[in-house]
Write a structure and sequence with these properties.
The protein has 333 residues and is of the alpha/beta class. It has 11 helices and 13 strands.
């Protein structure tokens, strides 16, 4: 039976580096406060005059295609995971298709926030296994910076998020490498613990029209940080162990764990829980902040570039975020 294999990977982040010191000029915060709570030292913000989510995704996609030794024109399906599309609708999948000149192929948008890339990978895996498509482009990316409240009022979320995109090419493989399994979960009881309420559709007419309202607070990220942390450290561990048990493997078999880059404290707690040495977990939240659906493919791309992912390595991906949703994937590289 065919398996689905990642054959190429790439990422792109904006040029502008925003340090904790720069943020401290906008709000009541400082470098030590941010690092202590998040582990983040800097993040990337777009230049709205030239950057879009679609063109950042296109740059990452071209790198992934080149590393997969295919032409971008060989891509026959796009799956785009993001909660910050360039437009409210249509989704950014069709905009990426346009950027890449891939006229006529299907484009699917996934809105599972921090877990979005693994959800997208799981969907792509099924299409490959059934023979529906042969060269699937899977992208995770976000532009968070333009929605952040860069004042003291919004500092609890403003210091966390950043912009960027990562992409992979998924192809069929007949050897033992590829995606071994994916595991997807959700619990909508906690939807309002991490969400952006508007522009939502379940509103009276006068509340859905921005020009008619003065209070725009519902357009900002609301996050119950302690609730998110409490659930994340449990669900991360559970979903990783679920993947290991499914494949009759142990935590010692993991060559590299790449968790969603939500908070360095969560990653460190997870590392301790799984008793993983430093060289078996990859974090880059220090440089990029939380790029939501973009964080796993960006981190995976950097890890590959740095030689930390090698042929036959067992790579574990795991995510937890808004929804609440959580997911994992085990990959034999």
């Amino acid at each position: 039976m065919k398996s689905a294999k990642i054959t190429g990977i790439g990422h792109h982040v904006p040029e502008r580096i925003v340090t904790n010191e720069e943020l401290s000029t906008m709000m009541d915060t400082n470098n030590e406060w941010i690092i202590e709570r998040t582990g983040i030292e800097e993040r990337r913000f777009i230049d709205p005059s030239k950057d879009t989510l679609a063109n950042m995704a296109a740059k990452a996609s071209k790198i992934a295609a080149e590393r997969a030794n295919i032409n971008i024109s060989d891509v026959d399906f796009i799956i785009f995971a993001t909660i910050t599309p360039d437009y409210f609708f249509p989704g950014s999948g069709v905009l990426l298709q346009r950027e890449l000149g891939l006229e006529g192929i299907g484009a699917l948008d996934i809105r599972n926030a921090c877990s979005g890339f693994i959800y997208a990978l799981s969907i792509g895996e099924q299409y490959i296994k059934t023979g529906t498509y042969k060269n699937i482009l899977i992208v995770g990316g976000e532009i968070q910076s333009t929605a952040l409240d860069l004042t003291t009022r919004g500092r609890n979320t403003a210091v966390i998020f950043g912009d960027g995109a990562g992409a992979v090419i998924l192809q069929p493989s007949t050897d033992q490498s590829g995606v071994l399994s994916t595991h997807l979960h959700a619990d909508g009881r906690y939807a309002e613990e991490l969400y952006v309420k508007d522009p939502g559709s379940s509103r009276p007419h006068d509340e859905r029209q921005p020009e008619q309202i003065l209070d725009t607070s519902t357009y900002k990220v609301h996050m119950n940080g302690s609730m998110v942390f409490k659930h994340a450290i449990v669900k991360f561990n559970e979903v990783i162990n679920e993947a290991l048990e499914k494949n009759n493997l142990k935590k010692e078999d993991i060559d590299l764990l790449i968790p969603h880059q939500a908070n360095l404290r969560i990653s460190q707690f997870l590392q301790q829980k799984l008793e993983l040495p430093d060289d078996k977990i990859f974090n880059n939240i220090m440089k990029y902040g939380n790029t939501t659906a973009g964080s796993i493919p960006i981190a995976m791309s950097e890890a590959w570039q740095q030689g930390k992912i090698k042929e036959n390595d067992l790579v574990c991906l795991a995510a937890f975020g808004s929804g609440f949703t959580w997911a994992s994937a085990l990959i034999k590289w």
